[in-house]
Amino acid sequence: MKLYEKLAAEMTEAVRRGVFAPGERIPSVRQASQQHGVSIKTVLHAYALLESLGIVETRPQSGYFVRDAAATAAALDRAAVSAISAISAVSDQQRLTRQPAPQASPVAAAVDVSRLVLSTLRSIRAHDAVPFGSPYPDPSLFPWRRINQYANAIARRQASWNLIDDLPPGNPELIRQIARRYAENGVPVDPGEIVITLGATEAINLSLQAVAKPGDTVAVESPTYYAMLHAIERMGMRAIEVATHPVHGIDIEALARVIAGQKIAACMVMPNFQNPLGFQMPDARKQQLVELLGAHDIPVIENDVYQELYFGDTRPSTLKSFDTRGLVLHCASFSKSLTASYRIGWALPGRYRAQVEKLKFLNTLTTPSVPQVAVADYLRHDGYDRHLRHVRKVYRQQARIMTAMVQRFFPAGTRMSTPQGGYVLWVELPERVDSMRLYQAALARSITVGPGMMFSTRNDYRHFIRLNYSYPWTPQTEAALKTLGELVTQMA
Amino acid sequence: MKLYEKLAAEMTEAVRRGVFAPGERIPSVRQASQQHGVSIKTVLHAYALLESLGIVETRPQSGYFVRDAAATAAALDRAAVSAISAISAVSDQQRLTRQPAPQASPVAAAVDVSRLVLSTLRSIRAHDAVPFGSPYPDPSLFPWRRINQYANAIARRQASWNLIDDLPPGNPELIRQIARRYAENGVPVDPGEIVITLGATEAINLSLQAVAKPGDTVAVESPTYYAMLHAIERMGMRAIEVATHPVHGIDIEALARVIAGQKIAACMVMPNFQNPLGFQMPDARKQQLVELLGAHDIPVIENDVYQELYFGDTRPSTLKSFDTRGLVLHCASFSKSLTASYRIGWALPGRYRAQVEKLKFLNTLTTPSVPQVAVADYLRHDGYDRHLRHVRKVYRQQARIMTAMVQRFFPAGTRMSTPQGGYVLWVELPERVDSMRLYQAALARSITVGPGMMFSTRNDYRHFIRLNYSYPWTPQTEAALKTLGELVTQMA
């Protein structure tokens, strides 16, 4: 057990014994470092861990506090069952991805992924840092001026428009434009199947809720995009992580074994430009996956948010396009390709359409009308293709730069993914590097990274990080990556 | 059993036996009326019932179709257990409200409230009808021009603002402005407790999810606002309806008996200007309610969306203001008082704040940023009070007009509520009038009403309707209400 793990365990015990009561302030980083005779870094790391476990929370300018009674109790339960063991888990020799043990774990019972993600996102906001840890695309690439003009014109025009117009399934013109877009891209869909949501987040949540119930087990990729884990956590389901190849995607044989071994209520995958691995699953494998799941009547939630950000010549196929039984619930949004702030997503739920439409109505009633119409107007009045050609070119270039720079600045034993689209790079660091420690050390230097812990319920990726390359490459960026490489070298 | 009930039961049986397969068209209204030798109205009513049960769906210009396999199966189960019995339930002699049997019913197992609500809302949209059935305030009363100006200015200013800025709990300035508003109204709150949501709908959903789990029983008012039933249905919980006095609100003695009789996970109420009854619960009773629930450690979700639309001199108190144990989850929004289309709501979740903030993050990630900032700007730059004084005056007047006109046009035996705020009137029609039949007949004349069935899981309110008086009173409105009165007289 590492020093910071020991310290975290001690603090957890102290909270359990009531030494530090809910709402109470725990010793400052400096105090703790003196009391325990450990470095500031060690304390920072231990506290970050306690925060990610939901035992303490930070308050700006005032330090770390034990969270409120209810939350703490829950967190302590989690910590009891798994936290301390989870953080001392050892990783095996497989590269870039892992071969997880074939057992489902309730997401909330593992290291608290959503809390870690939220605090990571906050750190991006808090510090005006170099955003290697950001999950977002560079917003300056969005045609925001144009879209805002449409929104403004609509708002003027529709003095008294209100919710009624765009009740689920959503604004008819927007639905038509989305269907047209799929058709242009060679993957025709039925407009009547589309349900507009609040970003892909809601589309994924409602799709999962439509096909599975609390306590059910859901198969996901390993590593998996944390939003998938959030959806599972939100519903109190269990996740089972399936080995995923960094180039071919989810291991279909491994998945078959999992299905043979236990009841799987649903499968959640990202066949195109998976976050964090960036692969594009080959068509043959997409078809195999759909057939395997179809044979067992298992619905699959396809997250295709990066569909427009391909580096190849054409938009990749979808699982949906191989689905003959209405078992694929296809989810996407405009947040990665057109505007993140309008939060317009959609689902193509196959045979579960009626339930998803109804759940949308129950969950958030309706998606705001003006953003729906504004996006529809933008899509109708051209420009989207030109915009996307530009964005793809930029990301393709920046992927190359980022890859070259990591090779240049990071120590031997570093491996990385080869993104086929999107804007994130998955980096495996030398075994001895702990990405949570790296995350803290980098943050102290105003650099953010995405710690590997966010992409698994079982901390399989402690020496991995995700790097965002959507933002312009500047001397500052380069200096930051150099610093990051130096930190890694020290820790290796 | 009434004729239309018999017909509905027969059709249900036919679908069950596969006479009409999923996706198949059922006989047209005219055909059915000939085949069964019943009136068009009876068939329309039977089909509306089948639709509200989720067994058939309408498709524009093409008639009624049996819904897809999955949906139909579920619907048939529901129909089997309760639909036919539910529609033949008899109502007792109590006035305006009912004394429900003290037994919980899973919302989805009762007449499908959310489906009926959605089709009612659609009918408002479909027909350019006189909107007595609308749940929305008159949007022309909103200061939309002003708010849109702010939104446009923000969109211009924030070239590259993105999600990060307003992650849960939400935009700090908006949170400050909401807290300031409460303070001005004499019900101070802690800004640190506020979580911004997508309308009150999401606030209520997340609050309920934070305090109860699927299968739990939740106590609600009778009649209850259907959004409460939606939240319960969304989570697969059970609702138990508690007698509610049209002036004093939920019957605290009855609630105490319910609590003594079974495990209640939470209570959901609308103490101010309850929809549909319009009462303002007296302070003494608010305090009693908080104390009763506190004594049993039962969390209560307080829906206070009409807080600003009072007819009295001051903003009424809240359950929150009597809460000393953090058990009140207070939910509200700007959708009734400022802008419906921006979908800005919030929760004050008491001791459950941490869970609600996290659930918000899991459910929809974040509430769109520009609307949050635009509303904050509007609130900061005055005008809200003046706007509200005007709106209150208008609604107070129109409540008087609507009341007088119902007295004038409706037959003897009609009773109605005395709204203390808000913009809906609850009307009890003579026993023999069936509000679903009235709903259909009125729709045929381009008039919408809110059928009583929407406000209960057990069809206790079949001869009740809700009337919206937020829209300007015009000769057309008056003619429509006269027509409605004539329909009621015929049916009585």
UniProtKB/TrEMBL annotation, chains A, B:
Signal peptide segment: none
Keywords, comma-separated and alphabetical: Aminotransferase, DNA-binding, Pyridoxal phosphate, Transcription, Transcription regulation, Transferase
CDD domains noted in UniProt: AAT_like, WHTH_GntR
Superkingdom classification of source: Bacteria
InterPro entries, alphabetized: Aminotransferase_I/II_large, HTH_trans_reg/aminotransferase, PyrdxlP-dep_Trfase, PyrdxlP-dep_Trfase_major, PyrdxlP-dep_Trfase_small, Tscrpt_reg_HTH_GntR, WH-like_DNA-bd_sf, WH_DNA-bd_sf
GO terms for MF: DNA binding; DNA-binding transcription factor activity; pyridoxal phosphate binding; transaminase activity
Ranges where the HTH gntR-type domain occurs: 1-69
Similarity section: In the C-terminal section; belongs to the class-I pyridoxal-phosphate-dependent aminotransferase family.
Name listed for the protein in its UniProt record: DNA-binding transcriptional MocR family regulator
Organism name: Paraburkholderia bryophila
Lineage of origin: Bacteria, Pseudomonadati, Pseudomonadota, Betaproteobacteria, Burkholderiales
